[in-house]
């Protein structure tokens, strides 16, 4: 399966919602602590080497996350370590990019997520404890959501309700928001330690997963959240990212500081159904293709991006 070697440490990887062979990778120099960043746009190709870089964009600070526009096939949004949010058009050469830059967050922007139903807006989550709502055609953010008491590591839209999103924070809470309401509509004290990631089930819009420094993944039903539906144990260190499959209701992918990527079926007793140990440093970014069932990608601090079919060895050629 294809492997791409980046010059910097990988932070995030996202498949294009328009082209089954295209993905974007967010990277940061010196493990994101100090230095530059780079966004790579990669295309999968038959035969060796299996992946080619179509364009790259350099930034003066770390790139922690990236997402594709749901309305323009060439447009990317990037979360930058200097607190900025930058828009890139991959159809234009690097000197013509970024096409937009927003500077509002007071600290690092850690995640970005494009609205999959409205397709006209996106969310950013920041270490300044806030989430911001943006639109491409607005010169400034539409709204700031400020309730969390510590860094917000991820904010992600509900896959069916265009006004609803969830946020995961270092204050150990998962919050549910409706942009039409003045404050959060639900607060779930999901873990006793920092929550690093969350994601919605793509087939049941009331079910979410959270991952934490406590090494667990928990699955929640917002209709009855006093007790989680499932607690998934198997990672040896903090679980950095959790992602529901776009094709299978019960399947969850995760990656961890234990350097592994895991697959889980949260509905069965022996939930761990796959473990991949191809990374040699922290595994921090994972995605599953919407367009090709079973196609996965991961990236980590070993500066490598792997793309593979579920059930295959990512290191196999």
Automatic annotation (TrEMBL):
One of its GO terms (molecular function) is peroxisome matrix targeting signal-2 binding. Signal peptide: none annotated. PROSITE patterns: WD_REPEATS_1, WD_REPEATS_2, WD_REPEATS_REGION. The keyword Iron does not apply. It holds the Pfam family Beta-prop_EIPR1. WD repeats lie at residues 102-144, 145-187, 188-230, 232-265. InterPro entries: Beta-prop_EIPR1-like, PEX7, WD40/YVTN_repeat-like_dom_sf, WD40_PAC1, WD40_repeat_CS, WD40_repeat_dom_sf, WD40_rpt. GO terms for cellular component: cytosol; peroxisomal matrix. It is found in: Cytoplasm, Cytosol; Peroxisome matrix. Keywords: Cytoplasm, Peroxisome, Protein transport, Repeat, Transport, WD repeat. One of its GO terms (biological process) is protein import into peroxisome matrix. Residues 152-264 form the EIPR1-like beta-propeller domain. Belongs to the WD repeat peroxin-7 family. Receptor required for the peroxisomal import of proteins containing a C-terminal PTS2-type peroxisomal targeting signal. Specifically binds to cargo proteins containing a PTS2 peroxisomal targeting signal in the cytosol. Cargo protein-binding triggers interaction with PEX5 and formation of a ternary complex composed of PEX5 and PEX7 along with PTS2-containing cargo proteins, which is tranlocated into peroxisomes by passing through the PEX13-PEX14 docking complex. PANTHER family: PEROXISOMAL TARGETING SIGNAL 2 RECEPTOR. This is Peroxin-7. It comes from Microthlaspi erraticum.
């Amino acid at each position: 399966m294809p492997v791409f070697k980046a010059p910097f440490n990988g932070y995030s990887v996202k498949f294009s919602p328009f082209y089954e062979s295209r993905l974007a990778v967010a990277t940061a120099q010196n493990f994101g602590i100090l230095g530059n960043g780079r966004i790579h746009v990669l295309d999968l190709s038959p035969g060796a080497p299996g992946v080619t870089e179509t364009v790259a964009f350099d930034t003066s600070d770390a790139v922690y996350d990236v997402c594709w526009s749901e309305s323009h096939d060439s447009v990317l949004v990037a979360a930058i370590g200097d607190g900025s949010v930058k828009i890139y058009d991959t159809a234009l050469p690097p000197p013509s990019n970024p096409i937009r830059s927003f500077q509002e967050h007071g600290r690092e922007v850690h995640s970005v997520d494009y609205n999959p139903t409205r397709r006209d807006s996106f969310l950013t989550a920041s270490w300044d404890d806030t989430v911001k709502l943006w639109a491409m055609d607005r010169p400034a953010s539409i709204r700031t959501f400020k309730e969390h008491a510590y860094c917000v590591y991820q904010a992600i839209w509900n896959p069916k309700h265009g006004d609803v999103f969830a946020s995961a924070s270092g204050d150990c809470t998962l919050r549910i928001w409706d942009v039409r309401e003045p404050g959060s509509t639900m607060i779930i004290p999901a873990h006793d330690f920092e929550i690093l990631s969350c994601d919605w089930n793509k087939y049941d819009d009331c079910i979410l997963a959270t991952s934490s420094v406590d090494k667990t993944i928990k699955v929640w039903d917002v209709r009855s959240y006093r007790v989680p539906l499932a607690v998934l144990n198997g990672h040896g260190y903090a679980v950095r990212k959790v992602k529901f499959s776009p094709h299978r209701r019960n399947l969850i992918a995760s990656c961890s500081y234990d350097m592994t990527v895991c697959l889980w079926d949260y509905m069965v007793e022996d939930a761990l159904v796959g473990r991949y140990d191809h990374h040699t440093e922290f595994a921090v970014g994972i995605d599953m293709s919407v367009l090709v069932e079973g196609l996965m990608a991961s990236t980590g601090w070993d500066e490598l991006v792997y793309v593979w079919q579920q059930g295959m060895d990512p290191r196999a050629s």
